[in-house]
Amino acid sequence: MADEELAKDLGPLAALTIGVGTMIGAGIFVLPGTAIQQAGWFAVVSFLVGGAIALLTALSASELGTAMPRSGGAYFYVNRALGPLFGSVAGWANWMGLAFASAFYMVGFGQYVQNIAGLSDTIGVAGFGIDPVKLIALAGAALFVLINYVGAKETGKLQNIIVVILVAILAVFTVVGSLRADPANLPESRGFGPMITTTGLIFVSYLGFVQITSVAEEIKDPDRNLPRAVIGSVVIVTLIYALVLIVMSAAVEQGFIAEQEAAGNIAVVEVAELILGPAGAIAMLIGGLLATASSANASILASSRINFAMGRDAIVTPDLNEIHERFGTPYRSIAVTGGFILVFIVVAPIDTLATMGSVLHLVIYGLLNIALIVMREADVEEYDPSYTVPFYPVTPIVGSILSFALIAFIEPRVTIAFSAAFVAFAVLWYLFYARSRTTKQGVLSDYILSRADRMPEPAVSAATTVKPDGGQYRVMVPLANPENQTDLITLASAIAKQESGTVVAVNIQQVPDQTSLEAARRQGDYDAAHRLLERARDDAETFDVPVETHTILSHRTFEEVFDAARTYDADLTVMGWGPDAHGSPGRAESAIDELASSLPCDFLVLRDRGFDASRILVPTAGGPDSDLSAAIAKLLRAEYGSTVTLLHVADDESEGREFLEGWADNHGLGDAELVVESGDVEAAIESHARDATMLVVGATERGLLSRLFTDSLVLNVVEDVDCSVLLAEKKRKRTLRERLFGSN
Amino acid sequence: MPDSNSAADTSLFARPVVPVAGDDDAEKTARVALPRIAAVGGEMLALHVVEKAGGAPDKASVEQREEHASEAFAVIEELAAEAGVDVRTRVAYGTNVAATILDVAREEDASAIVFSPRGGSKWAKLLTGDVSDSLVEDADRPVVVLPTSN
Questions:
Q1: Distance between terminal CA atoms of chain B?
Q2: How far is A442 from chain B (nearest CA, A)?
Q3: pLDDT digits (tens, 9 = 90+) for A652-682
Q4: ipTM of the predicted structure?
């Protein structure tokens, strides 16, 4: 077996156990009493409704999980589909949701310990009354954080045994309890309102299934096992919960639960004692301890996976995910999460902890369902789930609406305000921290921006506004001909300097077809290439911009430019053009057309007749490519203090002037000299170019670049003028697959 | 006699497997191991073992630990290049780190397993198990522990 295969060692049962073990926790061992008091026997319905909402999301999570079995789960899918703004929201919500839920589990743990040890309600410490439950919760949380910090691997297997014990205890409880069930005992339902509110409270019992997707990369045969585990765990726990609630409402007399709650006892334990005798109570107490402990343990572990995935996308600093040399654990992430858990235990009452955990997870579930719809609708080539959601699009739409809608019914209301504050924080976090760091754009904004002409304006501008600007601006310069190399590097450096970016100088060495690239690499004597790149480095360094240099071996020099632009993640490629600039493309015209019709980045092609940017002429008729020429003119003006002249040719002078004034203002060139001419476009350009040192032309027609290199250029003007000419062509639509997953 | 009995071939440092836990450990170990490997013209395999939980979620994401391994390998490769030693790298997965190191050494027909002591308190060893001890106890080939200078 390949080594990589050994990394996947979670079988179907182990995966199922993660979900069941995380979910069966304080939710079912602590909350049923409160639930029955709030909703009457409709508490059963509350658990069923919670299960149904979870199930809808579980279906979506399964599809996304089989399509993208990557560490990070829910956060990862939302970030991929909806982009880093929503990714930041989902990541923070998932992280903090798990911390709140862990705090809740630990307070439940504290209640069980208190019940067993029979501690009094408060312990006096130095004159202060401290709730022993919270004290135990803090100690418990510290213990489980420590266990994850040092990474005792035995806990993982222990977890599997715990789940079996829990399911066994609850099974005995429900089977024996149902024998005693009597419909006459059912406490009267309190109606729909309290039932939904109760659903909001107990929803914290349904948070675990998504954690299965966060370890998707470790699951054997995820195509089959992941959906089974995710959906199976939700179905199993929903059934268990419903049966437990039926027994608790029907097997004891009305008023029993209320009495126990009032006495501060744990209702589940008291019911178990009534049904099964003292042994039942003991089993239930042990069960409660194990369940809350295992849920907290699993949640702490899961949160470090979310951190890792967020760090991988630079939503948080990757330093958080440093691995401990001895323990092999993400110790910083665990410690920080542990800190949050301890704080939450101290500051918030148990109901708030539970509902914060629920609301933050409901936010993720809502987004997760939308993420599924986006992945399907955007028709991403690489998106190939082996499991697909039934009744699409109804399932994810209903799943999303129900998830968000349930939030509105959550009580205490202050939870909603706190959660809204968390979401607002995550948005601000993205805008002020992550946006300048992350580089991944979501499928959604790709979809909108690639159809900018057909999408509603607000959607397009919103997508543009929140687009990540991650990392720096990279200007690639393919170098072939030593003659015009300095001018190209000068141009590229000037632009890079203005954009605080980097110059990437590449030399593409043509290898004869009969020599393999491997052989060429081994022979590796490229003095000429090195000299070329060294000079490029010197030239760029006079501008004080960072430079990268690369030598590429290829059978095809021209086509390689496009590949290199992708490989080196260029935002702009500056290349020369002219006699023997890059050899001639060795392919048929149609192949070049295909290449140049989907430009991987913006292109500037310099027809070099001496680099002098003092007087720049920019002819424009509007359109995206002249946007680029305007931007370039502006950058050059900032660097060289150039005078810029804008030229527009129109039949109607006054209309033309109005257009040009507006265009100049929109492009930050309002103070440029404006010239409006009528008549022949080329003649006008030619005559004004006589006074200019550089002509910047936007490729208003699609595929200008391809025609340029196949000698079928319509604009003869480029050859007829005496000054240098810069042809600007904007990045063309790339396939979603390439943007999403990078080229190969 | 032919070369088969030359010092280079019989040396413990001809084809050692060098387990590395992280970049700090990689640097410490490489500094003391590389001169000895270079002296006999040997080549080394840098090995990082990702400890698996074996049927339960791991303590860290596999991808995360592969990244961690590549950081350690980068250190080794740089130092090895300086020392003029050929180095290969490998990530292996196993529930028992010592057993996995021994398996790989067997598969690669390593001349020895070479590492530097990790130190660490009794507590840490109790919590995480002591890989060094198990390596020595179950060894089926030479195990060389190189003291680090400080």
A1: 41
A2: 22
A3: 888 888 888 888 888 888 888 888 888 777 7
A4: 0.85
